[in-house]
Amino acid sequence: MLSVILGFATSLVYGTADFFGAIASRRLKPTLVTGISAWAGLLFLSSMLVSGLFQATFSPAAILWGIIGGVFSAFGLSMFYRALAIGPISILSPLSALVAGLVPAIAGAFLGERFGWLSYVAIALVLVAVFLVGFVPGQDVRLPSPQGVLFGIGAGVGIGVVLICLHNAPASSGIATVILVRLINGLVLGGYVIFQLVTRRVAASTFKGLGPKPWLTMLATGVFDSGANLLFVLAVRQGSLTVVSVLTALYPLGTILLARFVLKEKLALSQSIGIALALGATALLAF
After folding, report:
1. pTM, full prediction
2. DSSP character for 250?
3. Mean pLDDT of the chain, nearest integer
């Protein structure tokens, strides 16, 4: 039951990170926001080590899974932004979340994870809820192009592989793999930000006059994203990869709830149904 609670909490924290990232992206390009927040997340994880709240042992296995996870993290994010640029967002965003939940579930089946029929029903309901929560009917509902679908699937595969890597890291390594995932991700995406500045694709004046709010939202994005990584590791070490990953794929839930209560955005009927289905399926999994 603890793994279910932590898995559901992971999705909410990931969704909170996406919410702050979306707010920051109103002032800066999403790629810039992601690159800067990646380093903010790394600083947060470093503070966790210095404070003694977590420990990290960089064993060969931890390093291997951290490097693989970092590469796929950068790949998944780049695919995600390309998918959103092509659109429609209302279809490709929940598609990527659905794939992100399915990839670790398939890996869990190969690892020998088995459940009772009631659990399989609950897992299926969560996957349906993932799509309903992210789908916004009436907003650019044209059918996606094959290229957009491929990028959306690629984004989901990238995110899903990161979850598998975090699961496969030795428990004795602490948060070493999480740190390496953030480090590699920061090097790739942060390096891309520097490349854009050097080649003048982004002017340095872009950052002038931003004020504290955009910087604080980018800091919050990195902190919540890294915090979600920590929660996922804690959850998956208490339970199964399949259950925790499928629950984590509900991360659009945290975003739309914050948008509803903070920005006063209205929920579509399909999203309300998805939220109710997600809560019911989560309770069923815990049961």
Report:
1. 0.89
2. T
3. 87
